[in-house]
Amino acid sequence: MTDAMRLDGIRAGRLGAEDIARNFDDLHPALDRHEATVAADRCYFCHDAPCVTACPTDIDIPLFIRQIATGMPEASAKTIFDQNILGGMCARVCPTETLCEQVCVREVAEGKPVEIGRLQRYATDSLMAEDTHPYTRADATGKTVAVVGAGPAGLSCAHRLAMLGHDVTMFDARTKPGGLNEYGIAAYKTPHDFAQAEVDWLLKIGGITVETGRALGDGLTLQGLRRDFDAVFLGIGLAGVGALGLEGEDLSGTENAVDFIAALRQTDDLTALPVGRHVVVIGGGMTAVDAAVQSRLLGAETVTIAYRRAQDRMPASRWEQDLAATHGVRILSHVQPVALRGDSQLREVELAYVDADMKPSGETLTLRADQLFRAIGQKLETVEGLALSGGKLTVTGAGRTSVDGVWAGGDCALGGEDLTVTAVAEGRDAAMDIHAALTEGRP
Ligand code: SF4
Fold first, then answer.
1. Which residues surround ligand 1 with Cβ inside 6 Å?
2. How far is the CA of 418 from the centre of ligand 1 (A)?
3. pLDDT tens-digit profile of 348-366?
């Protein structure tokens, strides 16, 4: 075995502290005032702006950019937060290249869009740096709402409900609120503990109690919540990770990408986080890219993403794919794992080439690997009497589930892409519908 192919299991400290700090620094550093003004001046302030149509939360983008251009970043932030209370996080993690920036007229005409995401970050950072929260609560309605899941959908729903005068109790299975923002997104997209800072800022609205370590099905029942609260919103995400269904899946070194990313996000010392020398990631979404890129940044020598369809069908955006490539991640398409081998520790992964119909072509490829991450479809199994379809809760309108008084949004609900920004929009819209049902007696 050549040195380049040497396997030495999974271990910490492949890179020193300085390299790690540099690797995990902010992916898109903040704009300063001058840079923000120059970037804002590129906007044509289009009438019927296509960027607004492409934004799942319908932020008035030309207005907030104009407010930056005229030296009013705090007013600009308010324009953003009115539609998207997690506008700070979305400015960092939104795939703007496939949303607002993709359709920006300057992208279409010149191949260089207005930097909407970075401008949004500039504006939201300006306002969040202030001590006061920009919203106040309406008069108390006397109504109570349980929000299960303190991720983007739940936080967005809770904030809007609290603002409208309802009392909200949020329950979350983890030890910290934040959901995917805290546990499921690459560290270099949201460094400096921004996710928790944003939750703390959001909760300043008041009227929201957070109970962590409380999960549905584990001491918390939907029936009990419906009895104790006037309405229930579920933003519980998708917990289960699909198995590969292969022998050897229990070998040491084989794990779920979401667990790896969560461990990475929660550690205080990235030099102490173990990673393999040769890593294979199975999947093609953003989680696959986040796990792959972070493995490289921790010092893995070779990282391969194995995706079963054509590369242009990967759920991860082209920009994410390019990010992976620039970090030395190899993307193999039209392959699927057929065997995991090792003694007690994973040693190699056999991949079979498949055609467009996913039929094996007869050719295989064996990769040496001491670590494999599963980053394939997550889905719900059951949720106490609620109708599911394809592993997600069925909803109508603004997140109404099959059970009266229970709404849902974010990744656990059908419809929309599994993006932070979509979850925020769904949580907000469900809150407005809950408010109407509670105060206007709407059925
Ligand atoms: Fe500005 Fe581009 Fe939106 Fe037009 S499409 S308003 S130029 S950001």
1. 43-46, 49-51, 61-62, 65, 104-106, 114, 116
2. 25
3. 999 999 998 889 999 999 9
